[in-house]
Amino acid sequence: MMKYEFDNNVPIYLQIIEEIKNKIVAGVLAPGQQLDSVRAMAAKFEVNPNTIQRALSELEQQHLVYSQRTRGRFVTEDTRMIKVLRHKMAVSEIKNAVERLKLLGFDSDEIEQIFRESLEEDISKSDH
Amino acid sequence: MMKYEFDNNVPIYLQIIEEIKNKIVAGVLAPGQQLDSVRAMAAKFEVNPNTIQRALSELEQQHLVYSQRTRGRFVTEDTRMIKVLRHKMAVSEIKNAVERLKLLGFDSDEIEQIFRESLEEDISKSDH
Amino acid sequence: MMKYEFDNNVPIYLQIIEEIKNKIVAGVLAPGQQLDSVRAMAAKFEVNPNTIQRALSELEQQHLVYSQRTRGRFVTEDTRMIKVLRHKMAVSEIKNAVERLKLLGFDSDEIEQIFRESLEEDISKSDH
Amino acid sequence: MMKYEFDNNVPIYLQIIEEIKNKIVAGVLAPGQQLDSVRAMAAKFEVNPNTIQRALSELEQQHLVYSQRTRGRFVTEDTRMIKVLRHKMAVSEIKNAVERLKLLGFDSDEIEQIFRESLEEDISKSDH
DNA sequence: GTGGTCTAGACCACT
DNA sequence: GTGGTCTAGACCACC
After folding, report:
1. Where does residue A72 fall: left (phi above 0), alpha (psi -120 to 50 degrees), or beta otherwise?
2. Neighbours of chain A (3+ CB pairs under 8 A)
3. Is the full-model pTM beyond 0.90?
4. Residue closest to E14, CA→C1'?
5. Is the CB of A101 inside 8 Å of chain B's CB atoms?
6. Across the 128 residues of chain A, what is the mean pLDDT of every consecutive 10-residue run?
């Protein structure tokens, strides 16, 4: 058997980044909307303010949020950026799934067929 | 401040079940092949033997492994069962991905299109 | 008169980033060469290790250095990246000078003429 | 740990001299115009009056300002002096930039080419 | 020994 | 009150 390895060594700040990205892509955080303050988020996540700061400045470097020194932080108003992010996240989600299936010995044709089945079921579900 | 638990509340025994299922489906553990002993697995996973015990009996209930009192535990020789499992795992993998994307606001058409792109890239990659 | 403002509020970690970029561009740090460890640099700059860490991880995000967990950090071996950086730094150096001169009321023609004089003097200097 | 001083060892009085020269060259301070009093400037720069005194007498030695015992200090009316200063500042600005680039390993040809690019961009910008 | 993450707590500038 | 920077000191995984 293989080496033992249970997940969850993902750094907190990365998890927070993902959390916020999800909300931006899903529209829960709208373009231009103000984020909670560093200290407020630190309290909510029960985490040190520095950890939040790190997550947020990383998001800033990716141009997904911007900050105004004394006013606070805001979701980018550049909807193009958000669309790009949205697409990237979808691609990576799907690629990961495909990747894992290939490791289990599935080939592209099989994966495509199963994917097709999944979508069809979905459609019939939404017909109810 | 205390640590906030983000993910990782999946019980260990479920993670172990997944691990073993993966090996069976991928063929790393062949039909009829003997599994490591409970104590050996407990050592490898650095986990209490009871946890292993629980995982294995669950797999027995699902007829994916069977035990012979004195000899040990073995992967099922029923290849049909394995095929079914294989298919189920693929479906659930893909459904999960689709599900997460729908939560992010994607509709079926978008997902299909991105899926198509992913596969095409894969093909062009393997052409190199 | 204008607002009072003496320079030097530039964060230490940004100054360190510049320092290292300079060395990379000038070739003092060659592609693939190992950098001092975080702790060593912290001692050299008389600064907290976290500050060094921050500078270096920023450089890593810019793909100018890469790190290997247990071995240390290294200058990128991608000489293209270094060339790009080199060019960017030159452009920004010159743009800054031009910018400051424009604030002093110089127009492009004047600036070009003075620039030409500077270069000629330089050449005659290197003739000696 | 103590703080390491990176830049900012330029004496304050020199910074103030530069500030005033900039204003004179840019025309913010016109020929013959009266300067603020020492005390007023000391307040504005949040600096000891002696520091201002020193900066101003240096400027007097360079014939860029002159003082009338009881009335105060004034910008020189010798526009030729100002033109010379203006030129000198431009030259030194550019020479500094060139100098720094040479330290980074650029040769004159490269610098000229990049300078040319910068100016062209500037022109195309003003065309918009 | 290496890099990486996190906390606790401080100080700054800006409004 | 906001974000931003920095220190001091801790712990982890990896080899």
Report:
1. left
2. B
3. no
4. A70
5. yes
6. 56 95 96 97 95 96 95 96 94 90 87 84 63
